[in-house]
Amino acid sequence: MRKIAAILLTIFTGAAGVHAKDSSCISCHRSPDWFSDTSVVVAYLSGDTHLNFGIGCEDCHGGDPRIGMAEGDPTLAMDPAKGYKPPPDRTGIPAFCARCHSDIDFMKRYNPRLPTDQMALYKTSVHGKQLLESGDTKVAVCTDCHGAHGILPAADSRSKVNFRNVPRTCATCHSDPVHMAGYKTEGGRAIPVDQYEEFVQSVHGKLALEKEDQAAPVCNDCHGSHGATPPNIASVSASCGECHASNRDFFNASPHAAPWKELGYADCEQCHGSHLIMAATDKMVGVDNGALCIQCHDPGTGGYQAALTMQAGIDSLRAAIAAAEEVVHQAETKGVEGGEARFDLGAAKDNLVRVRAVVHTFDPAQVTEITSAGIKTAEAVRLTAEESLGDLRVRQIGLGISLILIMIVAFGLWRKIKQVDSRTDFTAHGG
Amino acid sequence: MVDKKKIYNWFDERVDLKNIEKFLEHKTVPYHKHSIWYYLGGMSLFLFVLQVLTGILLLLYYKPTAESAYESVQYIMTEVPFGWLVRSIHSYAANLFIGMVFVHMFSVFLMKAYRRPRELTWVSGAFLLFLAMGFGFSGYLLPWNQLAYLATNVGTNFATMVPFIGEWLLEFLRGGKEVTGATLTRFFGFHVAVLPGITTLLLAIHVLFVQRLGMSVPVSIERQIKQGKAKRLSIPFVPNYLYRDMLGWVLAMGVIVLLSSLFPWELGDKADILKPAPPHIRPEWFFVFMYQTLKYVPKVIGVFGFAIAGLIWILLPFFDKKSNRGEPNRLYTIIGVFVIAYIIILTIIGYVAPGE
User: Fold this and answer.
1) Residues A248 and A241 sit within 8 Å (Cβ to Cβ)
2) Mapped to the 3 state alphabet, what secondary structure does B280-335 carry?
3) Pairwise CA distance, residues B228 & B263, whole Å
4) For residue range A176-196, what is the model confidence (pLDDT) as tens digits?
5) What confidence tier does A4 reach under pLDDT thresholds 50, 70, 90?
6) Which residues have CB under 8 Å from B182's CB, separation 6+?
7) CA angle at B168 for the pair B166 and B172, rounded to the nearest 5°
8) Is the distance from CB of B161 to CB of B302 less than 8 angstroms?
9) What span, in angstroms and rounded, lies between the C-alpha atoms of A69 and A122?
10) CA nearest A341: which of A384, A393, A379?
11) Side-chain half-sphere of B325: how many Cα atoms within 13 Å?
């Protein structure tokens, strides 16, 4: 058993700075005789990314792992004269990691694509400021999110910073009311602890966590990771606009942009919310119950009329697409339409997609231009599909004529049978 | 001017036309009040030939992959000149063919036409029915539409009921654990190569038996003739019987055209493996009586029961001593009527009140 363990250890630690079998760090820290908690070594040996790059204990902690065991005094390996440094406290952790991770030349040797500005960003973050300026050790440091000895690359689905796990990782502190007690926003309000619950219900949360769609944003996509800061009112649209660029540009050029600033509204959040962002629907635009426009625009005002016009345009386009879709489907299942109409209908659907972005201009003229073009396309498709269904009638008429010809032939044969039967002696061939 | 006699002599010298003529001139078919049932065999043959011809035309455009099967049938129906007609005829003639083979078999059974020395004609015919059902089952999937996909799922699932080799059989049929593009390609192979090859051979044997042994005269007619109550009548195969056969074929064509006109064979929606199955999914109509039965009895017993029943059905002629002696056999008639009634009633229930 010990032999197997030794072999496994050799395999797992083969790349480490000092070979594991020669490392007094590993020998002692994995020995239950010396340490009741051997999880540090176990985590490290279970595939820590540093281990995979050949970075051993001494590369972070100093000391000399080659000595100690033979001499019967493992503490010799942790001789400060040999460069040994005890593990840092929480305040020292960012600088401890930054010794390598902020060293561009050093990092290039291992992973040239990995950024080296984490420490610089961390110093600008709320976490970094609280830790380094206020000495608040409750805030997140590197090891809280990445782990200490079992650090996995972010692409690894087991990593706490993998996109699937980021919300849960952030929620470890941000959903804990005890942990978050006392922390306030810039405006002096208590920081809520329901962001995770809201996020999992949101359109983004469902995409990221249920459909595992990497394109969906998780916490760090809007707030940053090492430079984590809540986006303020001025920068919300910058966050959202990273993905929803057209909507951001349309909104910024819209008549809403200026009053929004005056009223102190957050650009996108005002209508769509922040963590609990639900899938946007066409019903959000217009004057019906549930529409957002009428929250500010009263009947009789220009804004109300604009909302009504935009709603009418979108509803008409949807109705035209639905009507065309039904006829096209009918023609397809009847086998008289071969996909061209459906392809053309795609153009009308594109208009619907476009108008859902253009609606952020809040300009009825621009919206109407697109919806009218879409309705025209959908109408044309519907007429084409109806014509195809008309072909069915032509086919039926053709078959009807064929049937008459078939009946004439049948009648001719029947006459012929009568004719030959009259000349046949039915008993002549018997026997 | 073409010298017809010269051409005739040229062929006669090589294929013995005179002998064929002589044979056809003397070939007769029994003629009595039940002789209408004789035409069903010829009708089945006609529908089979129609299937082969329309099938060849469809084969020119059909693509047997999950990605393009549906689209290729759509192309046949919308872009290929008269492709819709060819497909409609193929689809309706297929169903009429299977129906006709069923009716032909039961008419033969009730008239005891299988009796000595025609037992092998009966056995070859019974296997031809199974092959026809195989044609229908494999062909149904080929357009790769949702209904066909689900029905094939249901149909192939029966294979798991077969003791010992059920799982293997299922994977053999599906080309994997699920109905996928691999199943489609496999069914295409069965439909256009394996089944036609076996069927052609068996059909040739079946027709050869019919030719060698002639048409069977029903026991009741035979007895009347023997008792002097009726005369033995027959009609020349050429032209009297042939004209009648042709009339049947033309009328069958009329029925196909009428059906194609009133109820054009639809294409349906493309198969979507991820779509949930709607309730009351059933296999094709000729399997419904078996499918419905399996809802009432444990599935293993049901499948095993049908296998045994099928085997007994094939072997029944060998035990019908009475008919072989030229005596009426009321028990066999009752069995035949019961089987027909069972199939009809269970099929109707399958469509009207399928249950869970």
Assistant:
1) yes
2) CCCCCHHHHHHHHHCCCCCHHHHHHHHHHHHHHHHHHHHHCHHHHCCCCCHHHHHH
3) 51
4) 999 999 898 877 888 899 999
5) very low
6) B174, B175, B176
7) 115
8) yes
9) 40
10) A384
11) 7
Check CB contact under 8 Å for B232 and A427. Answer: yes
pLDDT digits (tens, 9 = 90+) for B103-139: 999 999 999 999 989 999 999 999 999 999 999 999 9
Nearest residue of chain B to residue A336 (CA atoms): B78
B interface test, pick of A406, A418, A419, A423 with most B CB neighbours within 10 Å: A406
Interface of B with A in 212-251 (CB under 8 A): 231-236, 239-240, 243-244, 246-247, 250-251
Label residue B354 exposed, middle or buried (CB < 10 Å: 0-12, 13-18, 19+): middle
Q: How far apart are CA A41 and CA A20, in angstroms?
A: 11
The helix (H) or strand (E) run that includes residue B210 is: helix B195-213
* Residue A115: cis peptide before it, omega within 30 degrees of 0: no
Q: Which two three-digit tokens encode residue A290? A: 């549930």
pLDDT of residue A213: 92
- Tell me which residue has tokens 């030794």: A6
CA-based nearest distance A279→chain B, Å: 23
Confidence of residue A20 (pLDDT cuts 50, 70, 90): low
Contact (CB, 8 A) for B269 and B146? yes
Confirm or reject contact between B28 and chain A (CB < 8 A): yes
- Separation CA B135–CA B128 (nearest Å): 10
Q: How far is A96 from chain B (nearest CA, A)?
A: 51
Could you tell me if A18 and A58 are in contact, meaning their C-beta atoms sit under 8 angstroms apart? yes
Q: Measured between CB atoms, does A100 come within 8 Å of chain B?
A: no
- Substitution target in B46, B222, B240 with the highest count of A β-carbons within 10 Å is B240
Residues facing A190 on adjacent strands:
A184
pTM for this one? 0.69
**Nearest one of A228, A218, A114, A127 to A180, comparing CA atoms:** A127
The two tokens of residue B227 are: 């008792």
Place of tokens 């099967």: B69
The rounded radius of gyration (Å) of the Cα atoms in chain B is: 23
- The answer to whether B48 touches B77, Cβ cutoff 8 Å, is no
Test A424 with B87 for CB contact under 8 angstroms.
no
pLDDT in tens, A106-151: 999 888 888 999 999 999 999 999 999 999 999 999 999 998 888 9
Domains recognised in chain B with CATH numbers:
25-352 (1.20.810.10)
Q: Could you tell me which of A88, A108, A18 has the C-alpha nearest to residue A56?
A: A18
Nearest to B316 by CA among B44, B163, B125: B125
| Residue in the structure block whose two tokens are 């769509």 | A272
Write out the two tokens for A61. 């902690």
Cβ neighbourhood burial of A156 (10 Å; 0-12, 13-18, 19+):
middle
Residue type, B88: S
Q: Which residue of A has its CA nearest to B232?
A: A430
Segment A66-99, tens digit of pLDDT: 887 778 787 888 888 888 888 899 999 999 999 9
Would the CB atoms of B258 and A416 count as touching at under 8 Å? no
Q: Which residue of B has its CA nearest to A415?
A: B243
Tokens of A235: 């920068």
| Cross-strand pairs, B29 | B235
